Amino acid sequence: MTQNTASIPADAFSLRSPFGRRAIGLSVAAAVGGFLFGFDSSVINGAVDSIQGDFELGAFVTGFVVAIALLGCAVGAVLAGRLSDRWGRLRVMFIGAIMFFASSVGTGFAFSVWDLGVWRVVGGLGIGIASVVAPAYIAEVAPRQIRGSLASLQQLAITIGIFAALLSDALLAGGAGGAGESFWFGLEAWRWMFLVGIIPAAVYGILSFTLPESPRYLIANGRSDEAREIFARLVPKADLDHTVRDLQKAIEEDRKNAGVSLRGPVLGLQRIVWVGIILSVFQQFVGINVIFYYSTSLWASVGFEESASFTISVITSIVNVLVTLVAIFLVDRVGRKPILLTGSVLMTLSLATMAIAFLFAEGSGDDVSLPAPWGPIALVAANVFVIGFGASWGPLVWVLLGEIFPSRIRGKALGVAAGAQWIANFLITVSFPAMSGWSLPLTYGMYALFAALSFAYVAWRVPETKGMELEQTETLFHRKESERSRAS
Fold first, then answer.
1. 191 and 73 both lie in a single domain
2. Can you say how many angstroms the Cα of residue 210 is from the centroid of all Cα atoms in its chain?
3. Distance CA 342, CA 339 (A)
4. How many domains, the chain?
5. Is 30 exposed, middle or buried (0-12, 13-18, 19+ CB in 10 A)?
6. I need a labelling partner for 276 at 20 to 30 A (CA). Which of 35, 167, 304, 400 fits?
7. What's the Cα-to-Cα distance from 147 to each of 23, 154, 325, 389, rounded to whole Å?
8. Which DSSP string do the residues of 337-404 spell out, in sequence order?
């Protein structure tokens, strides 16, 4: 007989309860993987100009060195699921930490662009692993009553990692008098920017030895008693049997659906899989990672001093953290679709404003500036863009990807959508240096166009899923598709 969980006190999982505190503690520890993800995404921001100068790189090769880590991320993300099912979440966390640690050392002491690229790929593998294992672990240890809130810690950790990377870049460049200047032990400041990554990598590796293993992994491998002991510290006794039985049932369902295919009538895939892919591509094609990979170079290229460029990048990262908190607060109150549509409008207007502002850039080569009032206008527009993205498309695409796919294909479909996101990220990142050297107005105009298209796509194709059970969202999407087919 199923245990009645309705009698569990409402504050059983609050910060004041031991269950809530333990679950939050484990989730925060696991979210260090998200911190690594964000840190790696932005640490090269402050180093890219010095790398280009020291190794005498062209625009395309510079973009490739920045973007090549994303290829490692894609491979790491694909491998992480299989490895964590075979070896356990914690062992794979440790592997990810070792790879990021090695990458931090290798990039810091790189002697050529080629070994720099290799170490960037190694770091990407570690980040790809962390980007999958960390949220999976949080979802598997979090009590169902607070799972949504704890799962959002991953996205928050990513934004904090971005902030930490940009802040450390600014401090190191400021202390040395420039990113390309010598600092401690005769190493240039840009090298220390990468070496700082040793610290969070070591913390993540140590945590992998102190956290309990995922109960889901334990049950899947016949270690139910160990899983029950872990759950006994995370959920009230009245909910213990119910939690274990639900997990056992979910594991059995996953095994039954292991051979289910994603094949369908639309270019070889099911329609709902294409919805996930297109949402993922739009999330990257608006150019958000240009801000976090190249913003320091961007502002320096249009007349801001290097120190001012670093300060602007740090302020932007703080804005990103704050608006992510706003998104976490609003997503279950306002709904997914209104927030996405609002974000698309803000992104379209701000990117179009940036494109117009760069039309008025004066000078050429290294002597470029934005005359008043276009410099401040471009700066404000860039931060409005970050607000629009961080409060909507940043976190909410991941929410939708977790909701729109039916359970029988969820794992595979998420893998395909995540792979599409990494590839789109790579394409935008590798192309920006060459495109910006050719025409910044055209580059930001293209991003504005994709933002406008994202509004049209959400309005046309994505229904609201707020408050629905996962099974209901599948029925809703199927009904919407049937209505469109009849209308056409």
1. yes
2. 25
3. 5
4. 2
5. buried
6. 35
7. 9, 12, 16, 24
8. HHHHHHHHHHHHHHHHHHHHHHTT-EEETTEEE--TTHHHHHHHHHHHHHHHIIIIIHHHHHHHHHHH
Supply the DSSP symbol for 1. -
**Average pLDDT score over residue span 287-300:** 78
**Length of the chain (residues):** 488
Cα 245 to chain centroid, rounded: 32
User: How far is Cα 130 from Cα 203, in angstroms, rounded to an integer?
Assistant: 13
Instruction: Give the per-residue pLDDT at 9.
Output: 46
Residue 369 burial class via C-beta count within 10 angstroms: exposed 0-12, middle 13-18, buried 19 and up:
middle
Domain limits for position 447: 263-488
CA–CA dist 8, 202 (Å, integer): 39
CA distance 272 to 182: 53
Q: State how far the Cα of 336 lies from the Cα of 450, in Å rounded to an integer.
A: 19
| CATH code assigned at 29 | 1.20.1250.20
Query: Rounded to a whole number, what is the distance in angstroms from the first to the last CA of the chain?
Result: 49
Q: Which residues pair with 369 in a beta bridge?
A: 362
- Tell me, yes or no, whether 162 and 25 share the same domain: yes
User: Nearest-CA neighbor of 395 among 341, 331, 322?
Assistant: 331
Q: Would you call 269 helix, strand, or coil by DSSP? A: strand
Tell me the average pLDDT across 289-312: 75
The tokens for 447 are: 């991003």
Q: Are 336 and 401 in contact, with CB atoms under 8 Å apart?
A: no
Does one domain contain both 164 and 289? no
DSSP state of 5: -
Q: What φ, ψ does residue 22 adopt, rounded to 5°?
A: -65, -45
Say yes or no to pLDDT of 408 above 80: no
CA distances (Å), origin 214, targets 134, 231, 287, 312: 11, 10, 36, 40
In a domain, 225, yes or no: no
Scan for tokens 């594991």, then name that residue. 251
Q: Tell me if 294 sits within 8 A of 45, measured CB to CB.
A: yes
